[in-house]
Predict the structure of 6-phosphofructokinase type C.
Amino acid sequence: FLFQGYQGMVDGGDNIVEVSWESVSSILQVGGTVIGSARCKSFRTREGRLQAAYNLVQRGITNLCVIGGDGSLTGANLFREEWSGLLEELAQKGKIDEEAVKKYAYLNIVGMVGSIDNDFCGTDMTIGTDSALHRIIEVVDAIMTTAQSHQRTFVLEVMGRHCGYLALVSALACGADWVFIPEYPPEEGWEDSMCVKLSENRARKKRLNIIIVAEGAIDCHNKPITSEKVKDLVVQRLGFDTRVTILGHVQRGGTPSAFDRILASRMGVEAVLALLEATPATPACVVSLSGNQAVRLPLMECVQMTQEVQKAMDEGRFLEAVRLRGRSFENNLNTYKLLSHKKPDAELPKTNFNVAVLNVGAPAAGMNAAVRAAVRVGITEGHKMFAVIDGFEGFARGKIKEISWGDVGGWTGQGGSILGTKRTLPAKYLEKIADQMRTNNINALMVIGGFEAYLGLLELSAAREKYDEFCVPMVMVPATVSNNVPGSDFSIGADTALNTITDTCDRIKQSASGVFIIETMGGYCGYLANMGALAAGADAAYIFEEQFDIRELQANVEHLTEKMKTSIQRGLVLRNENCNENYTTDFIYQLYSEEGKGVFDCRKNVLGHMQQGGAPSPFDRNFGTKISAKAMQWISKKLKETYRKGKVFANTDDSVCLLGMRRRNLVFQPVAELKTETDFVHRIPKEQWWLKLRPLMKILAKYKTSYDVSDSGQLEHVAMHSQKEAETGAI
């Protein structure tokens, strides 16, 4: 450990400490950093770096893993470039011998980007961003209830001096009325248009207005727009009761979210692999995430690109700044613009198409955000939107009504499914559903749901031979806590469930010493158990995908007994509900209780339906919003393609698709083609990406196992990175 960042490196002494396995136990759920961090003036001078080099050489350290923002990473790169010069100078001064100069000739550096602003180019998500979004959304959700009651306008100021990511994404996630960010200043006369929008919303009986301001927000003349300025404007022009809330350092604190824990764990492994493979010839790199794929990028290319953004903003080239921020940022901005401002009816196109949206399967947090996005994008594209209540069953009973722009206001943050949802499949109601499609003249279907939604679409497309009504474009957006839908790495609702599991495990770990057996949902899919185990720092996770026998159970018990003899008096074991029909949660609990007699106590906990409820996490709100907007745009495109002689007729496989996140991209896949990838008996995909992370969980629980490095990131270039993203549907 280097305590206190570069300051500790310069000061040396007991700031540089060799650590053991136990040193990092139970820090997974602690926010901030246990090794401290400090801004360091002396490291900016050559003398400081000379002293730092001396301290490292004294301990034979030639590999550094630096976790920080662009400042820390730029400093690290300079240090590496100067390294041999610094050693020469130390030798001349007689502080080290020539032997040491040869032995420690090269310094390897790998960076991990830890920054809540997400302002580092080349990486989709920096470590800490998701947790900061959690803090912001908790506050916004709380403020919304008071604003609603008092009919108030709230101006929220969030962090981001040079980068508007937090402001933009939280505006998307709470459906804010207006957002101010440094990369995209409002047009001249924004004061008028903002006030018009706020008063229109009041006239539509919307009782609250939320305006989000990034601390670095500017107008198009590079003049700051402060939260006070916005408040005064609203009060003077409209006389609305307006309050300012500055979130400040709340955003940096608190427990890390499940997403951040998993991201940071994956990046930690990548960093070590990158250091092991580094040579004097390879450039210093940062490990980062692109979509769901770990990548390595040259550190200086990222830094240069990050500085380019600032330069573009200073020179007023704002469109360029947005483009340089990367595909994900641009997508967020476009989606926000699409969903927050309704054009006057006169300006909307009229397509005369009717599109129905329904939720199918068990409820998942984020479904409502997906419905809202679908309805608003559909209306913007000129369609009439219909909402079906209670899935296919409700459809058969004619529970279908037109839904307007205003009807879905405030839906983003609501848990569960406002439209209701049922597990019923359409097969036994085909005739009635076809009748309803005909009566309401439905030209396209959007189904949001889990495995039942996927089966439902397969049944509807099979029924096309008999019923022309089903010869329309149909698209499915995956939404289920189990994350067991083929064709997508993620599904809406899984992140929220994962956070629930992680929070519960954190609390359980504090409640007592001993071993806890925790049962998670997921059907036969081990995603929640496996990823929950990774995020909560569990000792074992039993899943259906990886068969286990009594010998493995015995090894786990012995492993835990050994652990309990150290300073760590806690054990955590997760078990997926269907991992094995005989080794039940009770069985495992009794086994551990018997074997651990006299060494540890054992308790069990079945999490149950709490995993399906709760307010959606920022990730699920955003993922739901973006994926659903994209699905709606696909429907519009298909409707144009299949409209012939006054009617829509689509009967090809590629007109029934599932939109999924695959590694780096969002892809539309015909459901017929996904059949071969599906294990229908156990309702899971035959291949699942997260199984590759299983060894990681075991290694972190101190098991000896091999880790497949074939999937580790190869060094890429940043420019190519964004070009490739532009060609595909990066999210």
Summary: The chain is about 40% helix and 15% strand. Confidence is low (pLDDT under 50) at residues 720-731. The first strand starts at residue 63 and ends at 68.
